[in-house]
Amino acid sequence: MNEVTQTIDVAKGISDYGFGAIAAGAFVVLGIVMFLAMFTWFKNMLSQLVSDNVEKMNELLEETKRQNTMLLAIRDGLLDETMLQVKNTSSMAFDLSAYDVLEIINTVRKENNISNREATIQKIHKLVGNQYRCIKSKMDCYPFKGRHLSDYMKDDWVDKVSAIVEAEVYHDKGENANREHTNVFAAFDEIKLEFYNSIK
Predict the structure, then answer these.
(1) 91-134 confidence digits (pLDDT tens)
(2) What separation in angstroms does the CA of 1 have from each of 7, 8, 9, 14?
């Protein structure tokens, strides 16, 4: 019934205003609807495009920041002044560690029942390992050529130093401060040279 009424109204409108006016009105309404649909589609498309570009720009910015940081680290690593700072800082750390190892030798002699060699060796390895991890954690603070200085340290240094401590504790001629000092510092000089060669 409703469709019949609408059809009659359209026919009456055509007879009153003419077919051209009704068709023009229909095209105007259709044009407005099409314009709104196209505007909405274009707005959504533009919004998506802007959103994608912002995301890509943020990724690009982050990557650029990372590359700049790495380039600064590499540049610093190539400067003679930076190499001198690294060598001085690491030299102080290794020299201090050498004195700590001399202290470990004295501590193990006094506190351990050195007749139980297996337990003593385990304690030596544990003390030297703790000292090595302490130095390594401090070297983590220094960036060099895009890495941390601790990355250039070798874990086999623990075994090397532990062997020297064990040899001094169980030396057949007994305690000798001069010999211990010479042997420990000779080992740390070798460790320093390995370290310097690895950071070149």
Answers:
(1) 888 888 899 998 988 888 887 667 788 888 888 889 999 988 88
(2) 10, 11, 13, 20
Distance (Å) of CA 113 to CA 3, 104, 121, 123: 109, 14, 11, 11
Does residue 146 contact residue 70 with C-beta atoms inside 8 Å? Answer: yes
Return the exposure string of 20-33: e unless at least 16 CB atoms fall within 10 Å of the residue's CB, then b. Answer: eeeeeeeeeeeeee
- The tens digit of pLDDT for each residue in 178-199 reads 988 999 999 999 988 888 888 8
What residues contact 159, with CB distance under 8 A and at least 6 apart?
Answer: 125
- Asked if 140 and 148 count as a contact pair (C-beta separation under 8 A), the reply is yes
CA distances from 179 to 68, 97, 122, 125, 198 (A): 49, 17, 23, 21, 29
Structure tokens at 38: 């196209």
Helix (H, G, I), strand (E, B) or coil at 113: coil
Tokens 């959103």 label which residue?
A: 51
Angle at Cα 127 formed by Cα 121 and Cα 132, nearest 5°?
A: 120
Taking the C-alpha atoms of residue 112 and residue 122, their distance in angstroms, rounded to an integer, is 11
Nearest to 131 by CA among 171, 174, 176, 187: 187
> Tokens standing for 29?
């309404």
pTM > 0.70: no
